[in-house]
Amino acid sequence: MKPAAVLPLPTGAAASRAQPAGPARCLGLDPGLNRTGYAVLELTPRGPRLVEGGVLKSNPDDPLSVRVAEIGGGVRELIREFAPRLIAVEQVFAHGRNYASSLKLAHCRGAILLAAGEEGVPVEALAPTAIKARACGNGRADKAQMQRSVSAELGLKAVLEPNDVADAAAAALCVFGRLRAVAA
To answer: Where, by residue number, does the polypeptide cross the bilayer (predicted)?
Structure first.
């Protein structure tokens, strides 16, 4: 099989020119190998507006390489459909008791970074405690607090479900000020 042509990624000034001319959007991602939450926020004169939120799933019966490819492919599709100018994603921290799950999460995050890099979209990595502190004023907020706070900030009548979507929206809200600068 003949390999496909590989195009160089835009860098420096070329990368900024590669930004879409449409609405200023941010893609927030809550990485997970089983479920990766996503939220697309758009800059409006009234503030951030939720365009779409959902979950990318991988089949737990598939090999790790296939599952990681499924998540990466899903992120690539989101980038192509919504043309975000910035991606916000949670950082991965390895903890002694959850080391194996942290490694799986790192694989998923790697697929996200690869998709973003191939599509020329800048990524901002955020600590989970920073996301929670921005959304709730408390870096140790629980899932229910996150869902209520993010839903209220976005002016939604219902609470964002599942919590993966609320977490993704919270990540996007963290970088929304930077999105304003990118859109200017």
So the answer is: none
Query: Domains in the chain, ordered, with CATH?
Result: 24-183 (3.30.420.10)
Collect the ranges in the chain with pLDDT lower than 50.
Answer: 1-10, 12-18
Q: Looking at this protein, which amino acid is placed at residue 107?
A: H
pLDDT for res 101: 82
Please check whether residue 160 is in contact with residue 172, taking contact to mean a CB–CB distance below 8 angstroms: no
Q: Cis omega before residue 162 (within 30°)? A: yes
Tokens found for residue 87 = 């991606």
Q: Which residue in 112, 144, 143 sits closest to 125, CA to CA?
A: 112
Whether 164 sits among the annotated catalytic residues: the reply is yes
Per DSSP, the three-state class of 56 is: strand
Alpha helices in 85-124 (DSSP H): 99-119
Any binding-site annotation on 167? Answer: no
pLDDT at residue 103, rounded to an integer: 87
Q: Which of 42, 70, 90, 119 is catalytic?
A: 90
